[in-house]
Description:
Coagulation factor 5/8 type domain-containing protein, Jelly Rolls, Galactose-bd-like_sf, Pectate Lyase C-like, mainly beta, 732 residues
Amino acid sequence: MPTVGTPPVAPPASRRSARRGVVGVVVTALVAALLALAPAQEAEAAPVLLSQGRPVTASSQEHAGTPASAAVDGDTGTRWSSAFSDPQWIRVDLGTTATISQVELRWEAAHAKAYRIETSRNGTDWTTAYSTTSGTGGIETLNVSGTARYVRMLGTARATGYGYSLWEFKVYGATGGDGGPTLPGGGDLGPNVHVFDPSTPGIQAKLDEVFRQQESAQFGSGRHAFLFKPGTYNGLNAQIGFYTQIAGLGLRPGDTTINGDVTVDAGWFNGNATQNFWRAAENLALNPVSGTNRWAVSQAASFRRMHVKGGLNLAPNGYGWASGGYIADTKVDGQVGNYSQQQWYTRDSAIGGWSNSVWNQVFSGVEGAPATSFPEPRYTTLNTTPISREKPFLYLDGNEYKVFAPAKRTDARGTSWASGTPQGESVPLSRFYVVKPGTTAATMNAALEQGLHLLFTPGVYHVDRTIDVNRANTIVLGLGLATIIPDNGVTAMRVADVDGVRLAGFLIDAGTVNSPTLLEIGPQDAAADHAANPTTVQDVYIRIGGAGPGKATTSMVVNSDDVIIDHTWVWRADHGEGVGWETNRADYGVRVNGDDVLATGLFVEHFNKYDVEWYGERGRTVFYQNEKAYDAPNQAAIQNGTTKGYAAYRVDDSVDTHEAWGLGSYCNYNVDPSIRQDHGFKTPVKPGVRFHSLLVVSLGGMGHYNHVINETGASTVPAGTSTVPSTVVSFP
Length: 732
């Protein structure tokens, strides 16, 4: 925060389709003949189908059109298929312990010759319920027995040169095993979620009441979400303070219109907006009273899926400093007035224009964005965003709450909703465990193991064990900047090396006992390909200190491949309570080990050593904002071997391919202004490693950079106390 080996070639689709059709006809005829010959028997109660629609994971999938979920969707025209290798597995989570009586496998021609049906109570320890080395393919109905929550088919030898392919994987039985109580999905959203419709009395009064509580409560415990049902609301000015989220409950922004404003200003801080953190506006259409809406924010303040029918002013009243910010999936009909904003990132949006550049303004996939002109004016523009998938959001479908999970887009430009109803999946709230203050980590994990998603209501949650997200396609969504604090030095949250997890809308606050990590995406040996269905981390913020002493060695570690980090602020506090070089010690901000990881909107600040370290191949970053730690006591404290200081963003020497656009690092060594930082950025010099639009700046001469990247770029020393960036247009 500034103060001022190779698989065989698959047959053509027509041949594969024809093959499936022949198999289907033969199997259907055979079944019919057998049924006709069967003697009449006394009717028995049929077992219950337990697996349909349940969470399912697999060791691999052949391509995007053959996901594991297709094997439990009840549709015999869709299928799961694996990679062309042995072994492979598909696993279904029944949600609770059940007595298993039967498993039905409906194979596509690519079936298993040898396989096992295995059951487990915990997803880790497996028991063989059935085994064969002479699988016949077609429809195999297997009578099995056991008590389990998880059932999997483990293929050990294929009957063809292709993978394993199932039209359906059905598990039958009865619930009511001894796995303990089933946690309920859905429920009310708690007292700090304020839901309005156009007829609700006293909306403005409630907005004002919460703003009075939250306007200056930078490190307070209050958390609030204002949710507006579809309709039109007149004459409102929703002033948004700390830890406050305002959002519409429609499927599109235009479903909920406010004839008025959603305002952030900086009166509480004497017109300086550089500390307007931790708030959000989403999924609304605005008709600003004056024609322009004011949104003067800094880090960790998202403006998503909005339609401003006018202009947008990003500066506070009086045009004091601001240090934002982030816009995504938004349309602004008029001009965006950047004014005093030092940096900003806008993604997949449409704007009527943009004014002023200050230090670092970056656009990707934005209709109406200024052309690249770095270093003056300091605009960096990508015509499209390489990969994006919008943040999941709560909405109303009639009277039923659902969470919409938008679809992935490639080379996106403009909003996801411009053509009408957006693409994606709706998940009923009944499939979420609604987390409320007082909920333990054990309960959260039980809900996840049961197959539920998590919806955190506004509040502060202490966890004495890691929240383990082990199931593919799990959504963990926070409302009102819900905050997770790990106790006893645990890691707050871990995600398994699975497809499609979505983490969004919450803050992780380090505890007083040092945690080795706060958020881990994938285990150390992660190697699965998630390109078709990546994990996303969106509006997930991490804080060390500020609200009190906190420590963590490394804040965020990304081990999985293909992860998208879409707007995060990872912050070692420079002010507040529990702040000091050792008091809130945190050596590393973000470490990326996975391949093909994309960061869009990366803010990482003030770490004792490296702020960002990148070890994975083919990583990409679009927009990066950094400040080095203010409170380094002297040059020796940041000495890195023979190098003065730790780079703000370092690509490891082992990396062959990496690319980044629009990066800025600032220093404000206010304890010892004589400190010198050799460079802001460190990278191997290789043809596949490229940087575009870089800058470093000394804030008022409080310390200086000798170079921008490696040994390239002018020193900031000649600027003296003038806050003038040193720039590099491209490297190498």
